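ARCHIVE CARD
CATEGORY: sequence design from structure
SOURCE FIELD: tokenized fold
FIELD CONTENT:
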């Protein structure tokens, strides 16, 4: 009887350990799939917006047709990739006002973007992040903006 209980206990412990390992592997693969899905959604939204802008301004070559935001992070401030993607999505919504604007008026637009975004606070997953515009570059209808993200600390 004692040997049966020992073997049953080992069997149950093996089942528990196996289920823990399986669950960890499943969550890791699900998280990777979810991150890839978020990337594809962002790309799809941007492609749809670019397509609409291209249709609207197909005969004008000097307008902003596409907006790309790039994130820079200092090594001291670790922000998860999920939070970065969420902040970039929110920034794209804020920057939609620039689509269709004349590239040659980028000097006034850059001032507007700096005022609009500089030190702006975005809230993602109950955490606040501060944004600082580092560089803006407009080439061939594409406005590229590099921003630095840092966790916001209230004083």
């Amino acid at each position: 009887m004692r040997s049966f209980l020992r073997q049953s206990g080992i069997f149950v412990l093996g089942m528990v350990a196996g289920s823990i390992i399986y669950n960890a592997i499943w969550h890791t693969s699900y998280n990777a799939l979810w991150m890839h899905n978020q990337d594809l959604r962002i790309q799809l939204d941007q492609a749809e917006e670019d397509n609409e802008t291209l249709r609207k301004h197909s005969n004008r070559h000097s307008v902003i047709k596409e907006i790309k935001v790039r994130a820079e992070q200092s090594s001291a401030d670790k922000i998860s990739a999920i939070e970065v993607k969420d902040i970039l999505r929110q920034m794209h919504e804020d920057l939609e006002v620039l689509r269709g604007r004349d590239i040659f008026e980028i000097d006034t637009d850059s001032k507007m973007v700096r005022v609009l975004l500089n030190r702006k606070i975005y809230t993602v997953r109950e955490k606040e992040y501060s944004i600082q515009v580092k560089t803006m570059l407009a080439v061939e209808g594409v406005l590229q903006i590099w921003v630095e993200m840092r966790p916001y600390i209230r004083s």
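CARD ANNOTATION: Strands lie at 66-72, 120-124, 127-139, 142-151. Helices lie at 2-56, 81-95, 106-117.
SHELF: design records, drawer C
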